[in-house]
């Protein structure tokens, strides 16, 4: 009896477990199919890359790899996957937009921002510039400024595949060239970080090129060796890197705005119905939104509060010259004064660019005293102009009243054609004849016998 019960229990257990295991295998296969289908299609920019003359050697030669231990090989292959970072840009978003709209994306520059118009269009265009630069730019040059302009314009022709852009427009080409240079510089910096993981073991670094997601699919091992032999081991380059690292230590805080430019953050807030100033926009870009607006550190908090207090002082000065019934929230501080506050607190770099707010915002003055004097002078000038215009309006109203009274007087006489009054007479100068008496013209009737009546 006991054997029967145990056998029945085992049979029932197998019967119950069987379908679930089978279902689990099916679900795994289904999940695998879904993951395979969920992979985004390759963007045109990656498909359009020209093949290299030499094949890419993702694996180092056998005689070089023999010097590495298994642990070093594992570290070399998984070094970029240990840290959660932003993945490589592949242009999938651009491909989706072009595929959905069945047409090219129009690219125009905002003359004030000197950036691409549109909050969504700007990152698509900039990312495509980066993809093309990393695919076509040579590595055996010290900087992209050493590359002839004709070569870079030839690379930029690939932008016309997805974008309707005029490469011959000077401002547009300046924008593209600047982003090519910045992308190339950042890419070289990432490659140098990969090299420093193996330094000072030069042979190990030579035998361990960066992974394809960083190095690219068309790059050769010879290019990696050139970087190590001619750049990364160069004493002058190493001194420059140490100097740059020392200068970066002076940076007291970073922003939380990501890759989106300063002005695009302000534009995004305006599309949501907000009215941000340059000061409030700077504050938002140096706070953790998910932590309730906490500043990144105390230095950024002090600067943000100083600029906010300075902005309130300027508002008070402008309110003193505004009408008494003007609400405080309607007092708008001119952008020039806002830039003066930013420059006084953040400082000004090359070409009068305000530090930390992008390359589009420039100022004329660089001190707090200049910004304060500008605010005072602006309020005084505005009040003076209002008084001057009010006096002119009162004078014109008086002239109009005199004209109307004189026209009524002439009408009662019934002996003047108003259309023949001279310009001087209209403005109070009465024309007289040789005898000193008023000289009137005979009335000229219009068609139908009616006399003109300008006051009707």
Automatic annotation (TrEMBL):
Q: Cite the residue spans of the region called Disordered.
A: 1-73
InterPro entries in the cross-refs: Probable_transposase_24
Q: Which Pfam families match?
A: Transposase_24
Q: Where is the composition biased (Low complexity)?
A: 33-60
- The domain of life for this entry's organism is Eukaryota
Q: What is this protein called?
A: Transposase, Ptta/En/Spm, plant
Source organism of the structure: Prunus yedoensis var. nudiflora
State the organism's lineage.
Eukaryota, Viridiplantae, Streptophyta, Embryophyta, Tracheophyta
